[in-house]
Design brief:
heterodimer, A: mainly beta, Methylamine Dehydrogenase, Chain H, five-stranded antiparallel β-sheet, B: 624 residues, Immunoglobulin-like, six-stranded mixed β-sheet, 8 helices, 34% strand
Chain lengths: 360, 624
Amino acid sequence: MGIVQKDFYEITGISGGKDQTLALLKSKDVLGWGGAGSGHRTPPNQDICSNKSPNTGAVYVGEISHFSNVSAGYGISLGVTDGNPCIWGFCQIAIGGQDAFTEAPTPIKGISNISKVAAGQFIFAAIDQTGRVYTWGLNIDYALGRVSSQNNAPPDLVTGLPPIKDIVLGDNFMLALTNDHKVYGWGSNSAGQMGMGHLNNINIPKPIEFSAKIIQIAVGSTHALAVTSDGNLYGWGSNNFGQSGDGAHPYIERPKRIVFPEKITAVAAGMHYSLALSSSGKVFAWGWNGFGQLGLGDLKSRANPTLISGLNGVRAIAAGEMHSLAIGKRQLLGWGSNASGQLGSGAAKQTTPKPFLAIA
Amino acid sequence: MSMENGIAFNRRQFLRFGLTVASGMLMPASLKAFSREGGSVAVHPLQTFVQPPMLEAKNGLLDVTLTASYLNTKLSGANAKHQYPVSLRAYAYDAHGPSYSGPTLVVKGGDQLRIKLVNNLPVNPPVLAFRDPTNYMKPNTTNLHVHGLHVYPGIYEDKSPLEYGDYVVDPNSGGIRPGGDSRQYVYKIPKDHPEGPFYYHPQYHGSSAIQAASLMSGAIMVRGPVDNLLEMDQAKELIFLFQAPYFATSEIKNNYSVSNGSLEKFAQIADHPTGHGVNHFKHVAVDAQPVLINGVRQPTIVMESGEVQRWRFINTQVFNYLSLSLDDHTFHQYTSDGWGSSTYQDYPDGRQKNGKGILLAPGNRSSVLIKAGATGTYLLRSLPVKIAQGRQTATLPGDILAKIVVVEAKEAMELPSTPLPVSNFLKPVTDKEFASAGGRKRSIIFNMVGNEVLDPSHNDPSFIDEAIAESASIASSVKESVKQKIAMAKAGISKVTGNPIEGSQYFPPFVFPTYDYELQPPNGIIQNVILGAIEEWTVFNCNSIAHVFHIHVNPMFITKLNGIPVDPYWCDTVALPAGGTQAMPTSVTFRMRFQDFIGPYILHSQMLKDSDLGLVQRVTVLPI
């Protein structure tokens, strides 16, 4: 989730999930576009097997406002209202022993004083105001970073971590950024995304070695990106489409620097593709491009970071599974998959940035 | 139906019964014994085992027309002697009339299989109950799925009229409509397609159970190098299409106003999914639908002592498992579903110590070699199968499926020696190959839940517990009073909301028992996979029942059971361990190569009534 630090925008945060887009407004309301987890109610399932028409337009998520943070996951979204986490979307399993939830936000009991949430594919995390990390969901491949008596575990603390300020979730793994600019990882290491030089799963949080301070992290399905305080970018994990920045190897087991013509301030990643925001407000894209999510006007994958021409003044970026988002000048823009209406109206494949909401 | 004078349990009683069967010749008139070459051969007079006609590709092509229509005939119940007049949906082929199954279609890698499917079923019945959530089900609209085949699942748009691959993602307004609509299916079998047993059945969303639980299925055999081995070629091949048609009878308490011999209401399956008729131990097992083999109840097979035969098992049932075992004999399995192995997995007589049955979930197949022992009579059985545990326990009763009479030998035969040839298509998926192809992992949840907007005061689990305690029966275990209460609550809510399926709020599942219908919550998730990817999926089962997971197009390389590594093997249909809960779901993990074919297709429960209710998800393989 790309958070805009200043508060003079009407939009204060954006998040892309599997098929949904969430925008957090200054009014503390959340707008949703697209499929499950967007706040749109889904019609009955008689055509479950066939093509369905996308949801068009935005809806407000729930009736309550006071959202301070949101995260769009795999058909499921999390939010924070007054320090309490809530969940909505399509989730076939109970969370923490609670069974009922819908496209209307339902509080998650048992944890409070939450500042940040992260939703993945039936795995979830929350950071509280003191930097402690809670995880819950399906504990396979050690995805929760802790031992749980249930394999669909209720929220509980992850031990052995210094204070955390951000956490990002991929396929059965998590990476956490500490207050003092270090990165910890745990869970599935199927493509080397733990960055530790092997393919073995990591059962408890372990630090990933960097020589520089890390200020931001992002993960796609199975690859990871990290921005250093001096504006450099590192990539590792799956690289079958060059999403980790090096076309030579199909996967990369240790962080490797990706060279850019200018300094990078933020990164975002989806399924096998990556986005980077430069200090001058430009966006680079690389990796898989099946829905045009690189924004380069075609559907050709790129093994090297490529500048999205004509896109300037970007303040924040985010990536869903197959769609990209940017807060630009007076516009919320998106490109890539619009199959579920996650970019508002228009064709299912958007190959160039398309404004879909005017903003202050 | 009464079992008292039905199946006997000791050998002596069975022999007496078996002789009655033989003299009664309860053989479907339209089926004859066929050899592999398709011509009639001399059959021992005791043999009542018959096979559907076999149609084999010539010069790379097999072109057949299947016609769906009603077959009016007689079928045996649990007691083979007791036959019931039935009127069920069935397939005819080419100029022939409808029969107990479709023909067996024989192809090899590189062949083209063309099936024109004509739907001559009558128009769909009118919707009578306005608020019935299953109104979308259209029992006479159909399509075709080639279960397990690795073939293109899309539409050949460049053909006019359109030609279809293994395309099943039909909308509710589409499909092959009754009253003469037709569709041309074309399956191009890849050159390296592994050899083994497959089958075809309808997979039109909402009507797959009612059609497959009629007589709409047939075998597909893909031939390959293993079939050319001398010993394999010499072994007589018997194809066992296990079918268990459901139909109303006077012995069934509630036939939902359907006339005897017919299957017209989804509830006939959904409300009593294991069926009726077979239950030898009322207190420990549920009722099960009697299984027929190629239309015959408990046929007799004659073998010579020392003779090797190869048997192909295809469980086309829509809900029930089989656990196959042959008295005093060992099955040497060489395909799991249609996917071969280089060595045999041995299954000695499951009644004896260290013996085990071949477990076939609905949709599973198996190929075995069997070497006849000493002269005598032996029974092919299905052993009891525990299909649910935990919140609810259910055990399918054992049953006798066939009788094997072994007569004096003429010559002894041998099994082909190992290693058997296996297609390179089935090479194991290594960690490095997986890492190099994206390393994606997915979690798929199988969780049948109720989504009725019920008053929670009518959703008291103690009612359910009480009901379960009083009956081991799998689906009739809700007491009538509970049913009535729930129905009243439903009716009350319906009045208020005007639409019982609209609500997306749902309550903890009762797992089993079900009341009438539990339509699943709207499921908007599509699994998007990139062509060429190798992925690892874990399928979680949150219910007591051992759900059955099936995915179209690509086989699964099973690696873990409940998170614990197993000797990996290939299959396309897999039983999920029973006894899952939402807190502790059971699981199966597999790897899959998404190669060769793009397109939307589906994963779903092969317990087809669950699939029809929404336990189905779309998979889209996207071009690079």
